[in-house]
Design the sequence.
């Protein structure tokens, strides 16, 4: 028996900043989609703010594992018949009821339209080996900040397959994620192909990260504004996923401050200071340093890999942002 027909579920456990992110997500959902029940899986089930912001506070089962391995058990955690699993580092900028309507009737799905095919390289899975091993022609490639599923026999079998893959991830050629087990996105993607589940083409309306941002980041969580260019596509997501480094970005901090102020009756005002212009101009670099400072002691190998990647990408990022043309010979 289900407590509610539809609802959202998120996770917040371990470090306190995950808890704060989950509170911000709940505040944004309460503002824009107050009729959708909210559930959270946490190891802080007696935390006062969580009890106020979430309709269901569910105790984390540590036997399910750490890091993203917990997400593989979301089917069992969810008290809903129709569930949106949303990462805690997302915020809603407008009503998300349309997402349930668009996904209606699908057992499991994610927003997206990109696939990994033979010859493609991916940091989370050996593409060619996996395609050959399972006699497939492609694998879904998506961001796992948003999952939709319905409680039925097909979905239950889907999650059983995903859990079986998670126990055998090394043999499947799935790479370690952040130094702690497999990547949930590739496991779910593989299970989707084996259970005939497809992605949903949302045209950038459901959820997107600002990874690959080109130009300005136009977002206001209070007024419902969210438009930016991600690589070559202009998107307007209802859920903005501040994944990875972006959770430390000044724009994220500004928007969650607005939500806090609204809760405190202070309106949509965020005090600026003499450093604001510098913060937003060099927002990504500042965010990266904050990200490094928090995570180096916990996972040095992962951070080293990220730093090397940044060194490779940074020159191209600067060239794109400031439209630097190559020097021409006279």
Sequence:
């Amino acid at each position: 028996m289900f407590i509610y027909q539809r609802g959202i579920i998120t996770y917040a456990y371990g470090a306190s900043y995950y808890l704060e992110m989950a509170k911000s997500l709940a505040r944004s959902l309460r503002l824009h989609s107050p009729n959708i029940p909210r559930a959270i899986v946490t190891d802080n089930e007696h935390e006062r703010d969580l009890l106020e912001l979430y309709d269901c506070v569910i105790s984390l089962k540590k036997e399910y594992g750490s890091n993203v391995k917990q997400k593989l058990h979301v089917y069992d955690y969810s008290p809903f018949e129709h569930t949106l699993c949303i990462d805690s580092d997302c915020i809603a900028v407008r009503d998300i009821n349309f997402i349930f309507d668009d996904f209606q009737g699908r057992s499991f799905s994610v927003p997206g339209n990109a696939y990994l095919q033979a010859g493609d390289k991916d940091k989370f899975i050996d593409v060619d080996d996996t395609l050959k091993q399972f006699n497939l022609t492609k694998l879904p490639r998506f961001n796992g900040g948003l999952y939709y599923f319905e409680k039925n026999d097909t979905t239950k079998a889907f999650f059983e397959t995903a859990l079986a893959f998670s126990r055998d991830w090394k043999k499947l050629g799935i790479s370690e994620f952040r130094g702690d087990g497999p990547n949930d996105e590739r496991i779910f993607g593989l299970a989707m192909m084996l259970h005939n589940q497809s992605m949903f083409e949302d045209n950038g309306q459901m959820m997107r990260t600002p990874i690959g941002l080109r130009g300005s980041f136009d977002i206001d969580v209070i007024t419902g504004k969210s438009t930016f260019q991600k690589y070559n596509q202009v998107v307007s997501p209802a859920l903005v996923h501040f994944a990875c480094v972006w959770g430390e970005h000044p724009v994220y901090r500004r928007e969650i401050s607005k939500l806090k102020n609204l809760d405190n009756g202070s309106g949509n005002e965020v005090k600026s200071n003499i450093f604001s212009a510098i913060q937003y101009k060099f927002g990504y670099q500042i965010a990266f340093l904050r990200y490094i400072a928090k995570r180096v002691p916990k996972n040095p190998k992962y951070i080293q890999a990220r730093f090397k990647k940044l060194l490779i990408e940074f020159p191209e990022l600067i060239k794109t942002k400031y439209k630097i043309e190559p020097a021409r010979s006279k």
Q: What stands out?
A: The chain has two domains: 4-194, 211-237+244-322. The CA atoms of residues 160 and 178 lie 24 Å apart. The domain at 4-194 is CATH 3.90.550.10 (Spore Coat Polysaccharide Biosynthesis Protein SpsA; Chain A).
